[in-house]
Amino acid sequence: MLFPTSVIGSYPKPKWLLRTLSNPKASSEEKARALDDAVRLVIKEQELAGVDIPSDGEMRRVEMTEYFTERIGGFTFKGPVRVWGNNYFNKAAVVGKVYYKSPMLVDEFLFARQSTNKRIKVPITGPYTIADWSFNEYYRDKRELALDLASVIRQEIQSLAKAGADFIQIDEPAMSTHPEEVPWAVETLNEVVKGINGVKFGVHICYGNYRALFPYILEAKVDQFALEFTNRRFRDLDLLKEYSYDKELGLGVIDVHNSRIETVEEVKYGIGEALKVLPPEKIYVNPDCGLKLLDKTVAFEKLKVMVRGAREMEAEISGNGKR
Amino acid sequence: MIGALPAPSYPRPYALGEALRKKKSNVDSLLNRYVSDLVDTQRKASLDALTDGRLLWDNVVEGSASLLSGWQKGDLTRFFDNNYFYRRPIKSQLRPLSLEPELKLMPWPNRLFTVLGPFSFSKLSSGESAVDWDYARALSAVLKGYEGWLAIQEPSILEGGFPEDLKAALELFPKSAKKLLMVYFRPFSALYEKLLDLPVEGLWLDCIADPSWQATLKELGQKRITALGLIDARNTKLENPDDVLRAASSLEATGEVYVAPNWGFDIIPYPVSKQKTRILGAIKRRSEVS
What we know:
The complex is a heterodimer of chains A (323) and B (290). With 323 residues, chain A is an alpha/beta fold. Chain B is an alpha/beta fold.
């Protein structure tokens, strides 16, 4: 199959879920049931949209770093901070040596797996991004913190692999924001995946300076980079050619910060741009980033368009032998 | 004696953000409450300037652009290396709007207002490494007659390619204001001599990003006003007032010296921004005593 479709991870939470979770009268059993229902629902929606590799929509996670810093030892919280517009997250402060406490995603993965026959992608936030998006009150520098976090994340990935997860995406959006740190950030990434077999590893990076990633990411021992491209109007795809990039590309063809629904032609245009620099078998198709900030209906429609664009491109290529 | 300045902007408290996001009717009352709270904190800390915190500005890029018409919001872009984003302004024909609504929120004589400078606006909007003269002219028309502190943020000039016409562009800014050119996130020492030559009353320097700041200022001297950004606006770790005072006092100052945050407090939690404001006050008090 050409152009398999997937998601980056997060999906809009249903309003009834948010109401239940914030209802002080709801019991913990009711909240747990609501979360299970929400996971089944969003996986089903992705299936209905035709997505080949869904995720559980990160229904159980508040935010991509907060979920982990709440569960890793050594962090504390001092209040929400704004990321853009009126979107906030609880940015943690590191106040002691970080340490692994217990599995964070295994139950989430097992539940998602039993909710679908499709392969499940499990996103996990990487050590560099957790380090960069935390206030460092304890470690001498960010590198020292990131290396300790790499050991923590590696333990979690080992647990996931043991439970049967075979497609894990390490989210490292911060990696492209500090060019001078990319070389050692890739080292921490390799620490995370070291010695773990039988798992397809993807890395998601977005909204930064992609030129800073090269040539270093070519040394990353992962199978795929899933990158935002719609927001940047497919600029920077040339970098892949310039550096003879030979891993898979998770091509972002859906703008997750704009509620306008792309056209099928726009999706096909994006894939066409990627085909100028990579062979078709290297291209996966996904949104630019997590969908959680979109209206749920809009997210669903965007996924449908994304899948239709991918399938039409596949048909065109398969039909003609080449485009 | 060493003075103290507040951050040019403060974090939008979560409750206010939620009210704005949900378009609730209590936005104005929340805004008034938080501005009063911030001003009260700054007054109690005896800071030398007062700001309303620019709580309604999403960021300094869009906030500064909001003083003008003739632009629209573009793609979401990271603000330097922070997990903090702005919509890139796409300009058509920039025209000045009125500063009056903004100044109503800051009716104090020692107010501190801030704008993005014309080079950084260009770099952060169109990506061009050049002074945006349309912006400079339109913005200076908005600011005409402004009295008080004016922090002109020019972080992009530290990224290389110092714009020789920045000096001429800054000449357009109001003579009536106490203008501080603010640079941050990178070492400034290599450009310091050029900064000294700019037509502003003072410089607001990110000393945290530049380990050579003391040597540079000692060697090359200072402008009439120097704001030492020694309070880390990107970390919750609280500074020890004695340590900061010691560092600031090591400078054999030739003009007015102020301790200050190295940038806006936009990306630390609101309660921490208030704690850091109190630390600024503590440094000033200790300086008075010593």
